[in-house]
Amino acid sequence: MKNVIGLSILLTLSLCLGCYDDKGNYDYHDFNEVTIGNRGFDTAYLLTSYVDTLRISPELEFKLEENKHLTYEWVARSNAVGFVEYPISNDRNLVYPMSLSAGEYTLFFKVKDTLNTMEYSNATAFQVQDLLTKGWVILGENSNGEAQMDMITYSVDTMVLKNILQESGLPVLKDPVKVWVVDNYVDNMIHVSTGDGTYRLNREDFKGGDHTHLKYNFFDPGSLEHFTLQDVAQIRNYNRVAIIDDVLFHDSSMIQSSIFQNPANHYKGSYDLFDVGDKIAYNPQAMAFIYILYNKTEQRFVYAGGRAYGSPAGRCDTLKDTREDVEIFSWKTGLDYVTSINSRFLDGYSYTILKDDEGHRYLYSYVIMYQWGWESVVKKKKYLLDKATDFDKAKFFGASAQRTYLIYATGSKLYAYDYVAEKVQLLQDFGDQEITLLHCDLLVETGAGDDFFYVGTYDPSLPKETGGTLTKYRVVNDPNNIIVEKVPGFSWSGLCKIKSIDFKKN
């Protein structure tokens, strides 16, 4: 009886509902799903700020159809610390004249349906460089003897930028000496050394000012007269030693402080400074932190640096002869200093050229080594250089990375001398032009077969602002002949009278 009553009730409810007039809206719509194709997002972009335009026309597919309820957004997010975002467009198709600063970015494209708040996106990567990002930085002089900086930039097509210092914020500087581009994860500034002092420039925009004078990197800003940087060695990317105003400065803690400490051209227990040669001998290939200098006062080799306990950091110590190597040559030579040269030859040979009272020149070859946690300096051989033509007149020196060649220049003539075979060859006579620079590449192209050097020349018939030329040469690894070739496509004229060059990697 209970089942009959329940069935009756269900039938009654069914009839009542069947008579009800449903006034509701049940017109359902599908989501207008958007698919962003990979066209334009399947590659990374390299762009030059204020030169290139980033163009992407995204491929969009709609489940229904494109409508006016869709919004578009392009956002560039910096990959540097902070991940700063830069909205760059709200158009469907991106046309963006690049104006972001140099760096690495991620580009996001977002499509939003305002009806249902659904959002769709795709992304790609791009890198921004500026005209100053990469290339050879050239320091020279103009007709007034003032420092001029040009640059052969690789950022777009290889091109020459002129007079970079005019907009740098630096004062007018006389007597240019050296440009040093620091590649160090602590302090990556560009140093411009002149007779009026050394200034540091921001590597991104080459800006500086009175506040970037090198004296502010000393514990005592009044310790020197000029603060002219003459030579520097950046050992293992962070340990630096420099000769400034003819004084040696060393600081193994520069990885942290970037501060030059007290003069280091003295012995332990004495603060009497001895005269040192103008070049620092070091090995760019080894793990060693030792570097070699020549004590001109005592006419002998000294060393500093090193990582072993008791190593002379912040001072120098004499190199000692042993019974096994004293016959090669003595570290106490009794000869006058000419110059020192570093190379990538074999294990990374260093050379020091000395002369006696009769004018004979000698080549002392040695290698700074690092083996099994131990640093040492190994003597190689002493050579007489009397057969090298006009060597006594040479102003610029270098060494091959593959052959036993010294490269040297005097006046307008460029020579190579094989100090083992005692063979000399005139590589080129530039005639009326003056050789102003010889730069052997130790740090840029360092492959097994790379052996390049650069020669700067000046045409005195032209203004110093534009009379300079930089040419790249390659040493051919021929065991029987001295062969040096010009590198095709790398000879740049219209430069200043070149004094120094250095390479900016990024």
Automatic annotation (TrEMBL):
Matches recorded under InterPro entries: PKD-like
Pfam families: PKD_2
Top-rank taxon, per record: Bacteria
Protein name, per record: PKD-like family protein
